[in-house]
Structure formats: structure tokens, C-alpha cells
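Task: encode each sequence below as C-alpha cells.

Item 1
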Amino acid sequence: MANFAKPSVPQFSVDVYQNAYLPDGGRDVDAVVTVTATGGGTSGATGFTAGGPAGVVIVVDCSGSMNYPPAKMEGARAATAAAVDTLRDGTSFAVVAGTHVATPVYPGDGRLAVAGPRTRAEAKQALARLTPDGGTAIGTWLRLADALLGGEDLAIRHAVLLTDGRNEHESPEALRAALDACAGRFTCDARGVGTDWEVKEVTGIASALLGSADIVADPAGLAADFTAMMENVMGKGVADVALRLWTPVDAELVFVKQVAPAVADLTGRRTDTGPRAGDYPTGSWGDESRDYHVRVRVPANTVGQEMLAARVSLILPDPAGGEARPVSQGLIRAVWTHDVAMATAINPQVAHYTGQAELADAIQQGLDARKSGDRDGATAKLGRAVQLAAASGNADTAKLLSKVVDVVDAAAGTVRLKAKVAEADEMTLETRSTKTVRVKR
């Protein structure tokens, strides 16, 4: 029998990197907040986390297009089997087939199964029922995942979604409504297989549900990708962690962005929690570190004055069901000085991640321009992206860019658009454009 002893509660730390100095009358304060969790996801071979059991729903696109070529459906079955094998004993799980409707494949009774030798074997046998037929209605799939996960007392709720096509059998408004309904209830990693799916659709799903998005151009790579995804999910120790920011009277938060390991704007996801305080969702955590860029606009002040611009806290849910609690905090300061060198210096962490955010924007704008036939605009934007990738040491992104443009001078951002670009290469660059490289401290 599996040992269901719960692991220790993860320990969180908050570090703030900034140049606190402003010129006379200066107002904008920038800081990079690094959040590090240790001790989470250490439950060994059990499906229990620090707050209780974990649940996973694997949603597989079974629309008719998954049969062209047949290797896509074969790869999806193999990937799902690999994911099931990676589940820890005690993890609640289900497999869902997605077409123009959502169909529970295993266990199939409207509930979740509990992972163990018998249920894993049964689930893998049931994968024969994953057969391509019908259309694509991703919002419907997500709502079923929510119903399955919401019917259990779970600490971690996660979905893995695989699709090979566009969401053609429901309206964009229906998908948006489903994402709004599911946001905050579970996280979701989304994968596009092949090259017939819509990048912005898949990345939008992952962004709304605080998960990752990626492309698996060759179906043969699905099993390895699903295994790595599930290992990451099994490493999560606590869910529903929030970044709480308090600001003093007359100060305002301009934006809050995750900047590592990927760029994600959290500004619009704020939930007010009290006078001048608000929470920004960060999802589930294991042993990991993430960076956030915070900009605060403070009242203009004179030389010699100093103030607390913002207080940053990590808020964890109470495993016993009580009120969420702060576990660590950092302070963002503002100090007005007449020293020009101090006031104009840019903190290295802030400068690095400002460049990484610009890199992501330049790639998106460059690819959009290329698709619309604006060659000059595409060349300028992708050239700037090459320059930023080289300057920041983002070798992975630089390599992806080199498949779309011929690099003449990386430091100067001089490039030529390639005459022919493989669709998979362009989609890979677009899908991974928000991935960043950590700043060297």
C-alpha cells in the first residue's frame, strides 16, 4: 500500500532588486522581485502535496484531423500512456476525449480514478477508445475538466491539453467564457501537435490558466514531452499562491509582470484584498524560482525624502481551509536624490528583464508583420529581436530566430528575411517567444 504521508510545507523567500534612487520630482519606481520556493513537491511516490491530494485531467484532441497523418493519434495515445505511467500513486486522474463534445474515457463515470497499478493499467487499456472523429470545441473540453477536478477535495488541480487544430466548432466568445469560468480553479499546460493549430489560441489558453504552452511539431516527440510535463506537475507542492502588493496613499501600480521563466502580464488579474492591497495569481509551485517586474508610480517628492513605495508578500492558502496567510515579504523603496549618477543608474536585473519583455514583443510584432506582407516592418522588428537576444545571452531564442532570418550582424540587429521558412520553425518561434533567460547575478 502506498505511503500517503504529507510532505513538509514549501518555504518561500522574497528578494527585491532595484535602484531606489529617483531625481527631484521623479515618480516611477522599478523593481525585480525574485520568489523562490524550496521543499515543495517532495512527496516521493505519493500523490499528496503539502496541502493535500493532487488531481490531473488529460484532455486529448480526438477530432477527425488527428487521423491525418495517423501518426498524430498514435503519438497522442503513446503520450497519454506515458503521462499515466508518470502519475504518482494516490494522484486522482482522468482521461478525456475532445471533439465537438467532451467525452470521459477513463474512468468514465463522471469522477476521477486514483492512480495505482490497477487503475494505470485500466487507463492505458481504455486509450484504444481515443479514436479520431468529429470537430473541435476546446471550451467544452475545459468545462468538463473543471467539473471533474471540482468534484474532488484536491489541493492541486491541473489539466494537460493536446490539440492539433483550430477551435472551429464553438465561437471565440464561448472559449473565452470557458476560460473565464475555469481561471483560478485549475492550471493547464497546452500543447499543439503538428502545424495546423493556432498559436495565439493555444498560448492564450495556457496564459489564462497559468500553465505552459509549446509546440510538438513531430508526433513522435509527444511521449517525451508529456512525460516531462507530468513530472513537472508531480513536482508541485502547493497551489493558489498569490503575489500581494500593498501601496501607500496616492501611489499606484503601473504593472506587475512575470518575467522569468517566461513573460506573462499579471496586471489585469488583480483581486483587491483590502485598502490599497491586491493579489496577483501565480498558480502552483514546486522547487523553483520566478522573477516578477513591478513598476510603482509614487507621488512626486523632493530631494532628501524617502518612502516605502510598495510591500510585496507571498500569500499561501491555509491547508486547513482557513484564511490565506502571508509567508514572506520584501520592500520596494523610493529615495529622492540630487546625485544624477545615482538617480539615472538602471538596476541590472530591471534592465535585463525590460530587454527580455521587449524581445518577446519584437518577435510577435515581427512575425505579425511578416504574415501581413510588411517585409520592412518584419525586418526591423526581427532585427531588433536578434539584437536583444544576442545582448542578453538568450541563445535558445537566437537559434529560433536564425531559422526565420539570415543574421548579418547580431550586435547591430542587421538581418534579412529568409525567402522560405518552414511553418514549424515559424510556429516554434512564435510559441516560445515569451521564454526568457535568467539574469546572471
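Item 2
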Amino acid sequence: MNATLIAVALSLVSAGAYAAAAVAQSRLAGRTEPSTGVLRLLGRGAWWSAVGLNAGGALLHVAALNYGPLTLVQPLGALTLVAAVPLGARAAGRRAGRLEWRGTVLTLLGLGALLLTAGGSAPHETLTLPEALGVGAATMAVVAGLSRPGARPGLRHAAASGLTSGVASALTQTLTVAVTDHSGGPLFSWRLLTVALLVSAFAMGGLLLSQTAYRGGLGAPLAVVTLANPVAAAAIGLALLGERLQGGPVSLVLALVGTAAAVRGVILLSRAQARGGRDRGEAAVVPGPVADPLPSRVVIGSPRRADGTPLGAEPVAVGAEPLAVRMGGRPRP
């Protein structure tokens, strides 16, 4: 088995682990108050389950980066959303719909086109210390801008999460290639220590930003994370690591078509997940008993149901007059 097949296989399993982690984080975020701090999350088993799944996906991703370039491994991260669709549907007790399948097919076709154009050789270039520091500083500046208070915080936090995760992947490849290099260079150096610290900071930052982004739902934020991650990593690979698309101009056209198809598929998947979330939310809204508008008219000590409504009282239907509450079949003034 050559390096390309190993990288693809590891990326597929990594995407499955990341998808399960995203579903777990989304369910945890839906049950968590927005004011809940990080320390409160550390005491919850669901949080550590999501962390374990993310860690497993990250280890597999690191292994894939040792066998394939960023332009090959990172686009396969879009399979996270493809895997999250059936997992999320199963967790919600429903089946994947037609829109979700259309998005899945388009995403897979787009990724297939990208795989044909991506370079298949194992990575050998690494970032220098000034390049790593420059990438880190630029990333932190962009994340600070995306994290400011304002409209659509979920999507902005998702974009920041995808950016930090993509940069962490690019830095991880530098770290992996440098550590596994058998040229006889020093294993520990200021460059490797700095890159390792940046990887840790960006990986943890991406995890916390995604947890914040998923508070408004899984679909659209996960789509933004899925798109921002490979864009950031591929940009670093093409600009700083000497990675190239194979096949010349024809390959470039095929890559653009594949990218457009994958983006369209991801958008359809995010719409399907958002629609599923709205449907579940509407189904969960059950009208409760209408409060008595004249509590002073109720005899103190009269028998009541468990919800506090007096026996014999019938809640008014939506659209009826506010005081038209029936008692014993006769309208009460």
C-alpha cells in the first residue's frame, strides 16, 4: 500500500471520529447554559467523551499528515460533515432525507475530483521558525477579530474554529516531518518547541471555539468549520510548504470544479441539518396549560391537578377570549 492510500484511509477514520465528536459536542451544547464556564464543562462526562473522540481523530489526522500532503489530507475533512449527517439523524431518531443525500453525493464527487489533482508524494518541507511565528500571529489576529461581540456569533466562532484547526494541522505536519526526519538534526530545538506550543494552543482553541459555535445548532457551524479548515491548511501548504497540484492547467480546472461541488454539497448538508433542528424544535413545543387570568376567583384549598390547574377547569384554546375559561361547562365571568 503506497503513501497516498494510507493517508486516505487514515483520513476516513479520522473524519468518522471527528463527526462523532461534533454530534456529542452539539448535544452537550444544547443542554448547557450559555453562561457555563470551562471549569463546569470539565466536570461532565459528555465533555470528556467529546474530547476523547477529538483526540482520537487528531491522532489519526497526524498519522495521515505523515503520509500525505495538506492539499490531499485536509479536503478529506469535509467527510466529517458527511458522517455527521447519519449520526445526527440517528441520534434524533429519524432517517436522512433527500436533501441530505444530495449534499452527500455532491460532496463525495467534489472530493473525488480534488483527490485526482492533489499531489500524492509524502511531505518533506517544513516551516521555518519565522514562518511559524508569522502564521501564528496572523491567525491570532484573525481569530480575535472573529471573536468580537456582534451578529452571528455562532458562524464567526465556527470560522475561527476552522481556521485555528487548519493552522494547527499545518503546524502539526511541520512537527511530524521534523521529528521523523532521519537527517541527523537535533530532535529538540527552539523551532520544534515553539511549533509544538502553537499546535497545542490552536488545537485547544479550535475545540473551545467549536463548542461555543455549536450552541446554535450543528448544521451551519459545522459546515463553516468544515470549509474553513482545509482552506487555511491548503493555503499554508501551497504558499509556504511548496505543495503543488499535479496535472497542470487541466488539473487546476478540475480542482476548481471539485471545490465548487464540495462547497455546494456542504451547504446542502448544513441546510438539511438546520431544517432537521427546526423540525425537532417545533415538535418539542407543546402548549402547556393556560394560566388562570383571575387567580383570586379560585377558592383557596380547592382540589388541583399536578400542574396546578383546578379540577374542572379546562385550558382555553388558542384564539379564544382571554377570560373565557370554562368551569363546570358554564362560562365564568
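Check on item 2: Confidence is low (pLDDT under 50) at residues 282-333. DSSP finds eleven helices and three strands in the chain.
End of task.
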